[in-house]
Amino acid sequence: MKRIIVTLLMLFISGTGSTVFAGGFQINEHGARAMALGGAFTAIANDASAVYWNAAGLGFLKSETNIILGTAMIAPQSSFRGVTPAVDSYYMENQIFYPSHFFVSQKFSDLISAGVGLSTPFGLGTKWDDNWIGRYLAIETELKTFSAPLVVTFTFGNQLAISVGGSYSWSDVLITQKISQTPFQGDAFVKLKGDDMTGFGYNFGIMWRPIEAISVGGAFHSEVDYEYKGTATTTGSSQLSANFPNGDISAKLSTPMNIQGGVAVQVAKQWRLSADFQWVGWSVYDTLFVDFKNPNFDDISSPRLYKDSYIARFGITFDWNDDISLLGGFYYDKNPVDPKNINPSLPDTDRLGFSIGADAQLFENLGLTASYLFIRGDQLTVADSEEKYTPGGSPFNGTYNSSAHLFSLSLYYTIN
User: Fold this and answer.
1) Regions in the chain scoring below 50 on pLDDT
2) Prediction pTM value
3) Residue 32 belongs to what H/E stretch?
4) Biggest alpha carbon distance in the chain?
């Protein structure tokens, strides 16, 4: 039974990365313009979403007040073929998620600007059939995190700006799975809910424009520590109720530090190229610690062994005319976890993203950006899984495939 609860809390911590389609369980969709450029936006940051991407960019916005409001639609698809040597295929249930974003910035003087916002930096979910072969590992996993940043930007002339800020975050999680009732028939159903309403982080940004055609940017986002407090509820055979995981539990999670640097070059009057490198400190998720409030269960420390990872991003902008721009992008996202530690709640793999978009100035102060992103995960075959899917401890070996379609719309408004 201890192993069952460890698995449950691993899911509790792991969150919902298989539909996030960034390494681990990170979401990088915080504005349609940035998404259209493949996320190569750190050295551009030319709308109010700079509050998230690189707040130093606020110092170079032309308007005094900038507002952006939008949402993304994420439609993931994942499948599992196995367990090896079987070739049966199982498909994650189709779900659609709508992480939204809202940012506002204000320029108070040539020196000082500030911004606030609300977005979803980590989260989403997975859902498999209640009776699929991996039901003892995962059925439904849903993680939501929200972050409200406050940033201040200092601009020095026409070439340099720096920013500093903090963020208040909160999160909730839902986990369900089944556990065997051997020697009794059927399975027991486990449901876990928890939340943490007090997470805090900080960020820094810098943007340097040595000449008019070149911009260099950098951004830092700190770790955010959560301590989820929740309740495990198990429904099953009354004869086994004393051994089932019920009652209060808690688990800690630190979302990773992000360091991102980029450059943007106006290579011709209508053409701009941008490139970013994003380092993600996933090694912070190296050990899972579970605190059981019920003294009948020992606290457990279990290695998860995530590794620091990176994303390489590239973008291109073509200014069709003064009111319309066409955008495109590409990125490579490196898997942060060894395949043998892959769990069906979080089947990470190396990913490629291809994006396009358009930006239109509808009226003097009102514009709209729309973008589409297709993400393809490399087929991943696990031959030495340490995840056990039967009471006897059989390894969950097999092949994962994943992809996603993402759409994003951002409406922006400026006041001069």
Assistant:
1) 1-21
2) 0.89
3) helix 32-36
4) 76
